[in-house]
């Protein structure tokens, strides 16, 4: 895969639908409220490594989805529902946000319902988003973080070609208190040399 050349700006495309070998990554809808609440948002085992606490009622989940819906008009907003082929409802989410103060650097994040841990879905979804952000958007570098002790999330990052920044521990405020997180990164040049898109076959859906 050739390394695309970009100017000073990024070619944002928003949360376009992505297809991988086993998954569809699409925008959330209000109809996803119950599935999101049931499959991961209400599970403390899932949210203990995230920035927010588990939801106790579906209205909390609906509020989050309503916010995402209000942002989808922005071409620099990236948040996807992870939907396995043939299932029809999301089992997790994957997104990306700008790292402020660092030009062309974005952070990716993901979470999956506990029932689907260890099946490679997190790696497949994250790799698709990485492909999009480097190949289509033109990001210079991507980072990701996980709380110390969440080794499974670190393995996802490694499988996507990211490497930990030696000695870098980031303190992050969350609803659980202050988290100590390990930081991983991958540059566009490293991604292009690795060609993860050939492995996972992520392709934006045609409009």
UniProtKB/TrEMBL annotation:
Pfam family, one: Acetyltransf_3
Domain N-acetyltransferase per the UniProt entry, residue ranges: 35-184
Any one GO molecular-function label of the UniProt entry: acyltransferase activity, transferring groups other than amino-acyl groups
PROSITE patterns in UniProt: GNAT (PS51186)
Superkingdom of the source species: Bacteria
InterPro entries in the cross-refs: Acyl_CoA_acyltransferase, GNAT_dom, N-acetyltransferase
Stated name of the protein: GNAT family N-acetyltransferase
Species name: Candidatus Faecivivens stercoripullorum
């Amino acid at each position: 895969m050739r390394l695309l050349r970009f100017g000073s700006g990024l070619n944002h495309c928003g949360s376009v639908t992505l297809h991988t070998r086993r998954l569809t990554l699409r925008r959330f809808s209000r109809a996803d409220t119950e599935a999101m609440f049931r499959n991961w948002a209400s599970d403390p085992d899932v949210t203990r490594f995230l920035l927010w606490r588990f939801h106790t009622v579906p209205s909390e989940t609906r509020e989050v989805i309503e916010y995402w819906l209000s942002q989808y008009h922005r071409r620099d907003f990236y948040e996807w529902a992870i939907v396995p082929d043939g299932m029809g409802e999301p089992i997790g989410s994957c997104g990306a946000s700008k790292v402020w103060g660092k030009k062309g650097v974005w952070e990716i994040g993901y979470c999956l319902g506990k029932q689907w841990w260890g099946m490679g879905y997190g790696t497949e979804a994250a790799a698709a988003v990485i492909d999009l952000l480097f190949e289509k958007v033109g990001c210079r570098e991507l980072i990701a973080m996980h709380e110390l002790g969440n080794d499974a999330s670190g393995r996802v990052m490694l499988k996507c070609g990211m490497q930990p920044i030696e000695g870098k521990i980031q303190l992050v405020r969350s609803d659980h208190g202050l988290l100590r997180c390990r930081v991983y990164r991958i540059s566009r040049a490293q991604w292009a040399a690795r060609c993860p898109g050939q492995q996972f076959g992520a392709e934006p859906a045609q409009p």
